[in-house]
Every structure is written in structure tokens, then in C-alpha cells.
Amino acid sequence: FHANSAFILQDFLWYPEVNGSMRQRIKSWTEGSVAKPHIIVVGAATWSIKIHNGSNEALAQYKINITSIAPLLEKLAKSSDVYWVLQDPVYEDMLSESRKMITNEKIDAYNEAAVRILNSSSRNSKAKVKVFSVSKLIAQETIMKSADGLHLPESSRDTNAMILMNVYCNKITKPIDGSCCQPQPPLTLIQKIAFCFFTLSIIGYLIISLIHRNNYRKNKPCTDLESGEEKKPAISTPHVSTLEMLLHSFCKLGLIMTYFYLCDRANLFMKENKFYTHSSFFIPIVYILVLGVFYTENTKETKVLNREQTDEWKGWMQLVILVYHISGASTFLPVYMHIRVLVAAYLFQTGYGHFSYFWIKGDFGVYRVCQVLFRLNFLVVVLCIVMDRPYQFYYFVPLVTVWFMIIYATLAIWPQIVQKKANGNCLWHFGLLLKLVCLLTCIYFLSYSQGTFEKIFSFWPLSKCFELNGNVYEWWFRWKLDRYVVFHGMLFAFIYLALQKRQMISEGKGDPLFSNRVSNVLLFISIVSFLTYSIWASSCKNKTECNELHPSVSVVQILAFILIRNIPGYVRSVYSSFFAWFGKISLELFICQYHIWLAADTKGILVLIPGYPMFNVLVSTFIFVCVAHEISQITNDLAQIVVPKDNSTLLKRLLCIAGFFSGLHFFSAMQDQSRH
């Protein structure tokens, strides 16, 4: 077969026995300036069994012949991909009388001889003949469908060819999915530096721990033999130093990042592709909801969107999103549209939470900004380094980071309008509304001016953060998809806090939010609105058209949910501690799933235990949740050290962080130059 357009030449050479003819053909490829094939697929045995009636002498001669061609194949393997195909099993009951001597026992003996002899003299791993054993595995599943008991059905050959193409092509095309056969990418300069840093942190922590243990033994209370009383040590147990706490955190983080790398960059664990079914999505959702309802407790406070309630909201949304990702439910449009609302609800909470803090506290200091930015971005920055991925790859973190800065800028620029100032003069409320109108105008303008948006984020150093595959289109798409919902969250917070200040709502335990009549009307409207949106989302026919409407209408279901959850007093007074626990680590869960639960950068599913899919999901999920919880603790500990409250110390730390990112940029530039 010769395809000029693709520069492909494929030859099928009929050499049914390992003999002198086959040896001569292979030898011709190793001599002189003859063009060597890029791929050689070779194998033979069944004809030898048939012609020689399955005799032991034929097997002995087969071993001699294999031994003679093995060095030639290994020589070819230095420059070409050489595959020795194991002989497929047969379905002995269907074989004709002339083929009855071809038994599975004989085939296994020939296969074992070939595997044992090939590569026996090769010490170079790159010059090895690859044993193509997958064809034997496929044949074991499909030989029953054979027409004559010997030849496999067409589907088996198609699968063999597909795997062979994956083996050769995937190391060139490097697809980002759960496909097989990709070579392990080489470590980059930045990854090597990170490895050295974590190694030194682990060594440093172990040294400090040993020193403390020895000091403890020296100062351990000892018994006075005369009085029988314990003597107290003169020196008290030393306080945990900042350095020890820092090394301890980096030690744990280094071990966790090693697990990340092994799961999704090394070829240690397999990945499998996702296949969506309704049961794979909806059954886990039902289990999760039942568990959530089972762990119901009373809230500490009964305000609208109190801390327990927002943690609960984040928790169940995150669990639904995780099930959505692992089941591949994005292919089912109604589910996709509802998940888009959940993502929008996260951003709504971003607008609501940060606006409420700045409005009530009036704290626009650098410490608050640095604390939020550190907690949002720490894990992602580490993953960008360890996993060699751009910042925009973890799109949700850049999204909430930019929106936080927009909220901060909107409220911090002159005039700074906060609740304390507005209480003295109602005109300040109109001033804040004017700020929100200006923000909405800017959002509207940028959403319909892609060129302006891309120019803003194409300037260095913003381009280093927001480019993906050489452009900022992905960032523009993600930002545009939920462009109004943060504004809606800010506006809702403003209206709610204004009503609360004027005591127009009742937030007592068990009390409805408004009067009974108003509460019943709003509750009815909310339920109808919630169901109307779900019906519309379920009837969506085109993802592009639905995405265009989503930014404007997603707030309908979000507000409907908030009112349904908060208007009845008895509903507002309880929360699910199960969901709230997951809500506290929702950001870590969302980011960690990329590499240690889904793997293949979310395109596939991590396989820790092959052959047992349910058990594999249970084990990988347990590890995944534990890791996310531990990273949350590490982030909180490091935030106290890296972002101190003292302004002068904080300024020094910020200079160190600036130096760190400058160094990172320098090494990244060196890395890019070496690649090109």
C-alpha cells in the first residue's frame, strides 16, 4: 500500500516460517545504505506447527532459527520499532482435520521460546525487540467468533491495528487524554529545581526532628533512686519554630507532589477513557444526597447565607461537579447546562462574600488582599511548576482571582464607600450603586469586544498567566461564560445587607424571612422559576446557543435556590455537616482532581487497581480526598508564615515573592529557548 499524500509505504511480506528466507530479508535491512523501515511487525509459528505436524524436532529447530535472527532484529531495533507478534490462541473444537495438530499447548511453547530468546543478548533498553502480546489477549476474547477456529474476526485485527498506531503515533502527537502508549515526558529545568527543593526540605525537616528527639531524650524526667520521685528537667520542651513549621509543610507537600507526578506524568499508573451513561451520573448523585441529608445539624446562626450554609452549598456543588467530571456527563447537554449553573453559583458566592467583607469591615489593607491571593493561588502555582502546566490550565483559579481583584478595585478606588459611612448619609448608597453601574458597563463592553479584551490580557506579564496554546481565547471564553454572575452576587449582597440594616427581614430561629403572605408568594415564585430554568436547560438543543443565554439567565436559578433555602425558618436553621466538610476544601478538591483522580489532565480516569473499576474508584477517591484535605491544612499553615500581619515584614515577604516569580520567569524563558 502506497499513499503519496501521506508519504506512507506499507509492505506485507509472506514469510510464514522462521527460516533462512526470513533471515535473509531481515539481514538485507541491516546492510549498507538500504532504507530501513520505521516499523517492523514480524511473527511466525502456526505454519511450522502445521507443516511438521507439531513435532518436538520442529520446536527445537524453531528455537535455533529464532536465535539466529535475534541479533539482526536487535540491531534493527536501534533505529526502528521492531515488534514480535505472539501467536494467537486457537479454538480447537472448530479446527478442521488438517489443522488439528495446532493446539494451544504447542502455540504457548513456541511463544515462550520466542520471548525467552529475543533480547537475551541485548543490554541496551533502547535496542530491544518489543513483544506485541496484546494481540494474544484480544484473541482470547474473540476467538470464539472465529469462522474456522484459527483466523480471528475482522474486529480483532482492527483493534490490533489501532493499538499499533497508538504505540507509534501517540509519542509524536502527544494527545492529552486517556490514550495509551505515551512516553514519559523528560523533566524540565524548573521541575528539576522543584525536585531538589522538596528533597532538601525533607532532609532538613528530618535533621531538625532528630535533633529535637535527641534533646527530648536528654531532658526526659528521670527517677531519683533515693526518694523515688521524678526529677523535672531544667529545660522545657522547645517551642515549634517557624523554620520547623515551614520545613514540615514543604516536606508533606513534597511527598504529595511526588504522588501527583507519579499519577499523571510518569507511566506508572494506567488511565482509562470516560464513557457516559445516565446511571453512572445519577446513581452516585442519589447516594451523595442521601448521605448529606443523614448528617443534618443545627446552625450556629440563622442569617441568610451564614457560614455553615455557604460551606454546605459549596460542598454539595463540588461533589456533583466531581461526579459530572468522572462520568463524562458533559456529553449530555441538560446535565452540562445545570453544571454551568453550579460553576456560576461559585462565582456568585465570590461576589457576595468579598463584597460583604469589604462593605461591612471596610478593610482594604494589603494583608487582606495577600491572604486571599495566597490561599487561592498557592496550590495552582506549585502544580504549574511540578506538572509543567500553564496557569490558565487551571482556569477556575485565574477566574476567581481576577474577579476578586475587580471587586477590590471597584470598592477600594475613591471614594471608598462602606456601610459605616453610608449609614450616616443615604446618598452614599447611590454612590455605591453608581460604582456598580460603571462595573456592569465595563463588563458589557468587554464581553462584546473580544479584540479589546485580548489586547488587555496579551500584554506582558499578564500574557504569561492567561495564555493557553499561544493565545488568550480560552481565557476570554471562560470569562465571558459567567461574566455577569459576580456582579449579581455583589448586587444581592448590597440589597440583602441594606434590608438587614433596616430590619425589613426576620432572621430569628424558626421565623420565616418575611411576613407569611410575602414569604409564601416569594417561595412559590422561586419554585416556579427554579423548575422553569431546569425545563429550559433540559430542552436545550445547541450548546453554543445555550452558552450565549447562560450568563443572563443563570442568576434566576441561583436566586431561586437561595430563597427556597432561606425563606422557611426551619430550613434556614439546619445544615448538612457532611456537605459543609467538603465545602471547606472545595477549592482543593476542584484542583486536585485534575491529576490524582481523573488523571490525563482530566481527560481520563486514574487506574490504581486495574481490573476492579469500583474498588479502584473507592481507593483513588479516598486518597484524593485525604490529599485535598492535607493540602488545605498546608495552605493555611503557610499562609500564616508567608503573609504576616506586620506591614514591614509583609513588605519583605512580598519582595521575596517578587524575586521568586522573577526567577521562575527567567528559568521558564531558558526552558522555552531550549525547547525551540
From TrEMBL:
Pfam families: Cas1_AcylT. The chain crosses the membrane at residues 193-211, 275-295, 315-336, 366-386, 393-415, 427-446, 481-499, 519-537, 549-567, 579-600, 612-631. The keyword Transmembrane applies. Residues 174-654 form the Cas1p 10 TM acyl transferase domain. One of its GO terms (biological process) is carbohydrate metabolic process. Its main location: membrane. InterPro entries: Cas1_AcylTrans_dom. It is a multi-pass membrane protein. It is found in: Membrane. Keywords: Glycoprotein, Membrane, Transferase, Transmembrane, Transmembrane helix. The keyword NAD does not apply. One of its GO terms (cellular component) is Golgi membrane. One of its GO terms (molecular function) is N-acetylneuraminate 9-O-acetyltransferase activity. PANTHER family: N-ACETYLNEURAMINATE 9-O-ACETYLTRANSFERASE. Belongs to the PC-esterase family. CASD1 subfamily. This is CASD1 acetyltransferase. The lineage of its organism: Eukaryota, Metazoa, Chordata, Craniata, Vertebrata.
